[in-house]
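haha ok so turns out i had the wrong file open the whole time. this is the CORRECT one, sorry everyone. sequence first:
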Amino acid sequence: MASVGTMPRPEPRVGALMIVLAAIAVAALWPSVASLADFWRTTHDYQHGFLVALVSVVWLALVARRRWRERAQPSVAGALLLALLLAGWLVALTANSLIAHQLLLPAITWAAIWAACGWAPARASLAPVAYLYFAMPVWDYALPVLQWLSVFVTETLLHAVGIAARVQEYTVSIPGGTFQIIEGCSGKRYFMVTLAVAVLAAAFNHLRGRRAIVFVLIAGALSLLANWLRIMIVIVAGYLTDMRSYLVAVEHITLGNVIFVMLLAIVFLIARRMAPRAPASGSPATENFPAVPTPAAASPWGAILPLALLALTFAATRARATTSSVDVAPGELPLATSTWQGPLPARAAWAPAFPGAVGERRAAYVSAAGAHPGVVEIYIGTYGAQHQGRELVQYGNTLLAPGPWHRAWPQVTRPLGSSQPELASFEAQSANGARWLLAYLYDVGGWRTNRDALAQLAYGVRSIRRPAPSAIVALAVRCHPDCGAARALASAFWDDMSTQILGMLPSERANR
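then structure:
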């Protein structure tokens, strides 16, 4: 009997903690959740994302229900992993790396469960949490491979059945017409949805270990075969009817849906056939899900750390979302009247495109004397608080504009200038065939680099508390007749004028 005045110590229970942690993780990482929901709503190939999320939640709830009365055993290793992942998530969020902070959402949720509940519950929750990755845009990286495979297999099969076909990149030409094997024909959606269904079928049918892996691989292979069959049916139908078939002249989406339903039915049938047989005696549920041992009592305070880390992350994201940042424009270009003359009007032949830049400066400087006469074009673009579509480093930004330019592959850069910081330089050819030497440098809060990834990472690290001003400085020199003289001219300009030009940047003015 307990002595008078003493109260039983509360003991954290795994089931309740798993549910609470998942809910808090969703709230703390709300930018990732909101961006994923918007992505699922607007992107056709990922509209199954809401269903995947629902399956993941229900699956995790079933795991939590089974372990409801188990005592939690908080893990120091789990807490360290959680802290590391949250730090990486904050950097990815502030660096506007959408795919990075989205991919960290399930990993952080799982690490929080490990930190608060212990290794055994974390291992049990790994599958339902990781199931979210079937709705992540990471599958887009498989698109080029799947598209190439579709073209290669289609060409091979057409030749095998005696249909003359000419293939150029993603275009298949046959007597009577031409077909485009576009991204939608790559089978990406077939592939990722079939794998998601296969994983769920494996869990439902108690497939484990090597048997589960073999089953999922079979399902993936069948999804590829189904997509190739769909493409072949459409092309052969066009060939036999001189392009007048309903599948060619009207639509073939219905055909794809019918094949996909048949594919899923076959996957479920294979799962049933591969399911382990129930033992002669005993419950199958007991065989596949042994009773969970009850560990010794643990301190209730061990679960507070992961909860506190998630709460601090939520506070940091909310504070940053409400932070107002003054947009910063570059200062005036330096006036040069001796060796260099300028600033003069920039030429239209080179006009970099950096959408969303707060302020831009373009000009030209002329060196009519000295060992390296010529014209140096300069561009400066500055950013304050960066957001999606308004970033220093993003896909839409380019120094190779206007019009289509050509740059040698693989893309190699060389340092330019003897003074620090060095610019990265490369050669390119404009739309009219003229050759240019281009050089560039990124500035993030006063820290400089000529590497895109490092500039984005630096912005993420420096902007956790408040947005850091950033900028790009770029030079361009027309090559006459080769780029050796252009490189010497650009190097001389940067050695002479870099101090004044860098002094225009908002980070320099803020530090004065």
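The longest strand covers residues 374-383.
again sry for the mixup
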